[in-house]
Amino acid sequence: MDSRIREHAEILVDHSAEIEAGDNVVVSASSAAEPLTLALCEVIGERGAFPFHVSYRTDRTRAAFLRGIESDALDLPDHELALVEASDVWIHVRADHNVADIAGVSGETMSAFRKAHAPVREEILDTTWVLTQFPAPANAQNAEMSTEEYEDFVWSAIGKDWQAQYEHQQQMVEILDAGEEVHIRSGDTTDLTMSIEGMTTINDRGKNNLPGGEVFTAPVADSVEGEVLFDKPLVHQGHEVEDAYLRFEGGEVVEHAAAKNEDVLTDVLNTDDGARRLGELGIGMNRDIDRFTYNMLFDEKMGDTVHLAVGRAYDECLPEGESGNDSAVHVDMIVDMAEDSVIEVDGEVVQRNGTFRFEDGFEG
Amino acid sequence: MDSRIREHAEILVDHSAEIEAGDNVVVSASSAAEPLTLALCEVIGERGAFPFHVSYRTDRTRAAFLRGIESDALDLPDHELALVEASDVWIHVRADHNVADIAGVSGETMSAFRKAHAPVREEILDTTWVLTQFPAPANAQNAEMSTEEYEDFVWSAIGKDWQAQYEHQQQMVEILDAGEEVHIRSGDTTDLTMSIEGMTTINDRGKNNLPGGEVFTAPVADSVEGEVLFDKPLVHQGHEVEDAYLRFEGGEVVEHAAAKNEDVLTDVLNTDDGARRLGELGIGMNRDIDRFTYNMLFDEKMGDTVHLAVGRAYDECLPEGESGNDSAVHVDMIVDMAEDSVIEVDGEVVQRNGTFRFEDGFEG
């Protein structure tokens, strides 16, 4: 076995999920991730915990099910919910045989499925959960890299000094936690303001996402005003949406467009009321992720980007006891900030053209 | 897709499990069974039911876990139990990448695992459960057949007229239900008596096992006397046990031996008290299974065989409200009845040299 697979498993178990003896762990992974699944089952066993291997999000089996069922027969699957409720840790390993396997399912069916399934996803977010990537050949292909190049890319981004990364990111956390209004401008196409007053900024150091490498918070739901063009493509359920555009008034999307697959974006926005509002503002800070790979888990962590998600907010960003924007979806979209772009917090520039105020080469 | 895969899925869903709209279904299968898993997810969806794909018994992930954990850390995994408790139907598809993947795990660890896991297995038996086989290459290899030959063998045994098979078997059910004492003799090596008074005989027509094709009941636990040589090999956890021999007194195994891997047999018998008593008497009646394939799901259904299982009895064989022999194991072993053999019920010969009293060529 490639020693990096064993290392990947150990980081997931010991750093990300901090698995302890007696923990009930679900390893959710398709057969394309088999080497990592096996390493995980062994390491989890070594810690005295109990792995259960499921293929919760294997898109090929899910697509087969959704080809079969009528949309209006979709309902909450109690047995899946019961499994999650009784689990302490949920590790989901992304790895595909074909990243487009879900593409044959209609947007309407996918929306109905997401709605029916929402309580299961909610419950997963109440476990200690981790999302990671195994560098399967189909994912390398999707990234336009050879499998060997992609293995290097993935495992370099994962096998980092996470304490050093935490400290780097903490500088931005402090700026956002002290701030109230965020203003994002990029070229002629993006000019967006939002309040983050009272919200908490999370320092993502490889806990829920491996690799980590971003800071994120939740916008005040009604505060978002202006327009944004997501100039990096978004891949949703196997469909690539290009140049997604959203215009907000009073926090709500009042206009949208896309250069390619606009109907996919429309289906997302029509899922429920919360799908038309922002649930997340994220700022990429992982300088080891140095190229786009059409994979949000990596792309959103890039140092020269900002990402916004329509849909559900993360509870950890919200004031104690307050519920944020709620939705069955959470769909991230990326703005490239490398050129002709600024992030301002309360009127002060904190990033210009991708360089942060606390980094070398910043021009204020 | 081979149309026989779709047919296999439909028989499982409609005949074996009788899945209805709204059922919560678990499809437990390794990646070696992927074509059937996909067909099952689609057909289950068509019926308006909800498939959840897990790899509960993928021996490679289980072996990895058991390599990692210390025997004394093994415990009941609550999340697996919760999943089963909330499930209506459990379909387990056998299919291996390597039938010996579990062989590296010690008998002691396997015994500890089986004990810790017993409540999960009990709960599965309370669902509508089906066990079947997908003809994966490693299973064909184990059967000493080409993959194509093995596909023909498996799908011929499965794609039967199950109503006709039921009627054929019912003749033997009536003999056993009316009988009290069973006497099995084969050559000089097997001479065993047991009482089946008050027990119910089950007509296996492809419900819990696909293929089906046997009738079985539970011996009265204390009534088994005599000796038996299982002249067909038993494959247990990847180890082949040859010429297993058991001698019973007062229902209990008081002596045992095997020509090969006797220690595997010893570990089974030492699991718990119930592992030293018989839980099942089964009589194979499927004439379409015409050769041994080192796979109990098929071998025990052959027309010229009797099988006995040490360990747990099936509740359905027992008088209402009575609990039968209890154990964490249920391990079947086969006696070849083709030559110099008889089955007697209450002193009357009901099978001689593999031919039943109600079949052509019977010599009373």
Quaternary structure type:
homodimer
What's the helix count of chain A?
10
Q: What is the first-to-last residue Cα distance of chain A?
A: 49 Å
Strand line-up of the largest beta sheet of chain A = 14-13-10-6-5-18-19-20
Which sheet architecture does the biggest sheet of chain A show?
A: 8 strands, antiparallel
Uncertain runs of chain A are: none
How many distinct beta strands of chain A? Answer: 20
> How does the helix and strand content of chain A classify structurally?
alpha+beta
Percent strand of chain A equals 25-35%
| Rg of chain A, nearest Å | 20 Å
Helix content class of chain A: 25-40%
The run of helices and strands of chain A is HEHEHHEHEHHHEEEEEEEEEEHEHEEEEE
Shape of chain A, please? globular
Instruction: Return the domain count of chain A.
Output: 2
Query: What is the mean pLDDT of chain A?
Result: 94
Name the chain pair whose interface involves the most residues.
Answer: A-B, 50 and 50 residues
